[in-house]
Design goal:
The chain is mostly helical. It has helices spanning 15-28, 33-56, 63-110.
């Protein structure tokens, strides 16, 4: 069963997972861009779903869990942006490296 607080209110389902996935997406975006991207998308959808659940029945769930859902949504958006930038930077780096290697190969044929 779901956790209850002192006022007999439920914890919002998906709020904590959204926060955890949002923080993980930020930390993973630099090392593994695609992993951070996937975590950010899942965290964002979980946060939006939790906020919609709270909006439908605000008296049933705790405000602290709503704050977790909002924080998870913001962290997921930041992680999404950073992951996209990291992925674009990786693509740009690899394409310029391949271009430089082609230029070196052409110079090798010149001499």
């Amino acid at each position: 069963m779901e956790n209850l607080d002192q006022n007999n209110k439920f914890e919002l389902p998906g709020a904590t997972s959204s926060l955890v996935l949002g923080v993980l997406s930020i930390s993973m975006c630099y090392c593994w861009g695609p992993v951070g991207l996937v975590l950010a998308i899942i965290g964002l959808s979980s946060g939006v779903k939790a906020i919609n659940t709270y909006t439908a029945n605000p008296g049933v769930y705790t405000e602290g869990s709503l704050k977790n859902a909002n924080s998870g949504k913001v962290c997921s958006i930041v992680g999404l942006i950073l992951s996209i930038l990291s992925l674009l930077l990786t693509i740009l780096t690899w394409s310029s490296t391949i271009d430089a290697l082609k230029n070196l190969q052409e110079l090798g044929n010149f001499f």
